[in-house]
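User: Structure tokens for this complex, please. No commentary.
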Amino acid sequence: MPRFFAIPLLFAAMNLSAQTRFNWQAHRGGRGIMPENSLPAFRKSLEIKEVATLELDVVVSKDRQVVVSHEPFFSADFCLAPGGKEIAKGDQKKHNLYQLTYAEIKQYDCGSKGNKAYPEQQKMPVAKPLLGEVLQMAEQYCRDNNRPPVHYNIEIKSSPDGDGTYHPNVTEFSTLVYEVIKQHVPLSRVVLQSFDFRVLKHWHTQYPDVALSALVANLKSAEKNVEELGFTPAIYSPYFKMILDKNAVDKIHGMGMKLVPWTINDVADMRRLKDWGVDGIITDYPNRIAEVR
Ligand code: G3P
Ligand code: CA
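Assistant:
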């Protein structure tokens, strides 16, 4: 076969294999082993061949940059203020990323302190990265290492209470995130997730080409949550303890959604949910995936 036919076919096959294999997701880049939502974490997870998707959270800085962070403030649990200063728990929300420029955000270190909840996590100085930097690094890594293209499960962290204080409104937040994604990766490899159903409703109408995942941490039925959302998302993503048996998995599938529960760190739990037929598993410990087989 001529080379100019073989190469595109090879890339198509690699992309297909990433889409059809079990959807193992590295939660916050794999915070069980590396500082959460950091460039070294995402890079480490890409080295684990079973990882199909990088899960990450985004917030917005004062100068409207999309920053990868779970909280819209610097957590006292694992971040240090500029100069290595400890952050008092009672003061952490004053270190508000939406009130800081990205140049100021970069002065904080969210890796050297470690995280007591994840004792295996490697300690190293890391700054919260930009979404664009993460996407660029991951795309480059896959190309350089002949890795199947990775997928991204990107969570917009917002709530009605935080509008204007911790983040912009849904429309502005969404526009900023969409523009960064579009610049770096094909939309076919992106899922946009949120607990904030306002965000999902907005993307459903504004960006119908992006697959959506409804994050759920409540005790309402799937039918009730979907009714409140007003449409059936591609993916239903509940806290894993809400999936009690195989019937629960079959029910979600019967409603026309994939099921990707979070956050499963125990190998026995991973095996059980995989056996029941979930479509993916979000874990802090991508290094444990190999034990599941
Ligand atoms: O992807 C789901 C999961 O990330 C939701 O939990 O709080 O870690 O963002 P959280
Ligand atoms: Ca998340």
